[in-house]
Amino acid sequence: MFEAKELEKKKLSELYEIAKELAIENYEEMRKKELIEKILEHQAALNGIKYCEGVLEIIEQEKEGEKGRKSIFGFLRRKEKNYAPSDDDIYVSYATIKSYGLREGDHIVGYAKKLKEGDKSMALTQIERINGRLPDELKSRPQFEELVPFYPTRKFKLELPNENDISMRIVDLFVPIGMGQRGLIVSPPRAGKTVLLQKIANSILKNHRDEVKLIVLLIDERPEEVTDFKRNVDADEIISSTFDMPAERHTKVAEIVLERAKRLVELGENVVILLDSLTRLARAYNVVTPHSGRTLSGGIDSTALVKPKKF
Question: The whole model's pTM is what?
Answer without folding.
Answer: 0.82
